[in-house]
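Bench log. Compound arrived from synthesis this morning; before running ITC I wanted a structural hypothesis for how DQA sits in the protein. Inputs:
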Amino acid sequence: AQLLLLHGPNLNLLGSREPEVYGHATLADIDAELKATADAAGQVLESLQSNAEHVLVDRIQAARGDGTAFILINPAAFTHTSVAIRDALAAVAIPFIEIHLSNPHAREPFRQHSYFSDKAVGVVCGFGADSYRYALDAALRRLPPDA
Ligand code: DQA
């Protein structure tokens, strides 16, 4: 099956961005590990990072026709702002898991609302780069048998 991993704004800076909050792993490290894990499970994982909301919306829309069975998404700051990305996920009706490196519930009040959580299959947050590993594990266990 095909899985799509999406990363929102500023996650291209992982590794150097507030390492005390987000850890030292780079986005390339995370993508490489998840691709290897998916590959070992006989699945295909594609990843995309963008700082632009419309790029993420366009990629989600394209997922409807390209065989994507599951979406893993760290919407980053768009978590707290983007009705457009929420609507795109609802439109394609592909199951998704919401991921955060940090635990937004332990941070500023404005991070405690997500436009995604109530539509997600599940949410993994607070485990640094491990959040991505746990989310992929959960997705692999939930792939539809025919995908
Ligand atoms: C984040 C949490 C968001 O609040 C923040 O805007 C991010 C990263 C995380 O992974 O912890 O950019 O999604």
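What the model suggests: Residues 1-41+56-63+84-107+121-134 form a domain with the Rossmann fold fold (CATH 3.40.50.9100). The longest helix spans residues 27-40.
ITC booked for Thursday regardless.
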